[in-house]
Amino acid sequence: MAVYTDVSEGELEAFLKEYQVGDLLSYKGIAEGSENSNYMLHTTKGAYILTLYEKRVERQDLPFFLGLMEHLAKKGIVCPLPVQRRDGQLIGTLADRAAALITFLEGVWIRKPNATQCREVGRALAGLHLAGADFPMSRPNALQIEGWRKLWAGARDRADEVEPGLVAEIDREFAELERDWPTDLPGGIIHADLFPDNVFFLGNELSGLIDFYFACNDFYAYDLAICLNAWCFEKDQSYNLTKSAALLSGYRSVRPLSDAEAEALPLLARGAALRFMLTRLYDWLTIPDGELVLKRDPHEFIRRLRFHRRIRSTAEYGL
Amino acid sequence: MAVYTDVSEGELEAFLKEYQVGDLLSYKGIAEGSENSNYMLHTTKGAYILTLYEKRVERQDLPFFLGLMEHLAKKGIVCPLPVQRRDGQLIGTLADRAAALITFLEGVWIRKPNATQCREVGRALAGLHLAGADFPMSRPNALQIEGWRKLWAGARDRADEVEPGLVAEIDREFAELERDWPTDLPGGIIHADLFPDNVFFLGNELSGLIDFYFACNDFYAYDLAICLNAWCFEKDQSYNLTKSAALLSGYRSVRPLSDAEAEALPLLARGAALRFMLTRLYDWLTIPDGELVLKRDPHEFIRRLRFHRRIRSTAEYGL
């Protein structure tokens, strides 16, 4: 559930005067997105999402995120199109926060995706990688190994509270990942957070990719490894090989994987599991109970990390 | 901000099959309403609000609330129309909760209403009173003096924590209200919670009355007294006589007030201020910090109560 900034109709109407989106009909704060405040708007010209950027998003990164969405949308990727203001800018100010208006995409996110939907996600991810290749801006991935180290430094002292033995296990994991992490895989713009709640479907048809606020430059195969973590585990943490094979096959039908990329997948998937485990662990240990922020259990990703550590061949992913 | 129950797309699609509203396009949890979980839906036939009734609303009261909305909407009051299921019922079950689908009303609620808007609210309130007169069901007001007594019993011990001397002041207030409360004013269906966040406007035109979950049978003038509390105080708790006069004049242009009703207004307004003070005080003292429920400051209504206690003539309300 989003913590959200209240916006009065007067300040919103003044804000909308900077755009050519017609007259305001209604707006509702929506309980989605954990980083920003989001409103759904109806105007006489259609439906939009208004985002107010809260403290977790750096204002200096906004031109990258919004420029990327605009670039991808113009290349036919089904993602929100930031609406240009009359002055050509994509970013304004509302309620003392940076704010942007983006087009509303119909579709629902799927709590229990099927293999067909996983294939579509693979295809869409590869399409995003190809479409992003000529995007002129870049943004380093703040959540690479060095970033994980910082999160771990803030959580390590108390990590054994979550599970006895976790400190030693994660220390070993860091040592191995730092030793073996690849350095020369193909890379470019990645989404870096393509979980089911960031992908909309209408039936089995993928109708939208949203939430580009972790997008950055990194290995394409790392983005794919994030998706294996995000889409292929069932609620009981079993790995669904059918979905995994479909996701990988969908990806490769649009962008072939090199041998080096395929071989790196288990290690990249360990890294991805560690990355999501660490942000959850950090929040779990540092956010006071009762804050209006959803604290997600880090255990899921500890188990996923262990799964990937046992992988001996990419055939186990259905590749 | 609403506490809300998550609904999967699968269970929502199954739920919608009971209705003739077309196919689901999107749904978003909306951060409005403190009692229930609300989703905004787009379907191929239009926009709807889906409400899941949480524990604070009694399931046995739902036929009254939804039947009333249907009755009023059919009489031309701009309120949501509950959508009938294929079996003719207005109430279904979703995610183990009673649930209903109502039409979506465009409009925004006004943080700082002007006098024209106050006049429209008065007119709409009177229209609602007239339109409800032949609604066949009734529901006693659980928040009359006896109900306030129960809230006070649960808060009295700690009320002086909120403001020293409050216990003695409110005890005196109860004694006077119980002694002087009218018994024979005109009454019928009242909204009982017509605050600005429950009234939508498009410009100065009133486009919707929502949230009928406190509606009940009581004196019409008491509903009007609630509106004086809800619409005519400024943020600094000063009373805006222009807005008050406009609200009363708007009301009387649709339904005349008898002398007895007019004379009772100061006392009814004290009662209304006490009622909202008490629910806020009770929540303030009993809901643990950090629950996902908005706790509103009871002081506003202590000050409003004191204002009404000093009223010597209804001319001070602009009547």
From TrEMBL, chains A, B:
Residues 27-257 form the Aminoglycoside phosphotransferase domain. GO terms for biological process: threonine biosynthetic process. It comes from the Bacteria. Keywords: Amino-acid biosynthesis, ATP-binding, Kinase, Nucleotide-binding, Threonine biosynthesis, Transferase. The keyword Transferase applies. It catalyses: L-homoserine + ATP = O-phospho-L-homoserine + ADP + H(+). GO terms for molecular function: ATP binding; homoserine kinase activity. InterPro entries: Aminoglycoside_PTrfase (IPR002575), Homoserine_kinase_II (IPR005280), Kinase-like_dom_sf (IPR011009), Pseudomonas-type_ThrB (IPR050249). Coiled coil: none annotated. Signal peptide: none annotated. Belongs to the pseudomonas-type ThrB family. This is Homoserine kinase. The lineage of its organism: Bacteria, Pseudomonadati, Pseudomonadota, Alphaproteobacteria, Hyphomicrobiales. The gene is thrB.
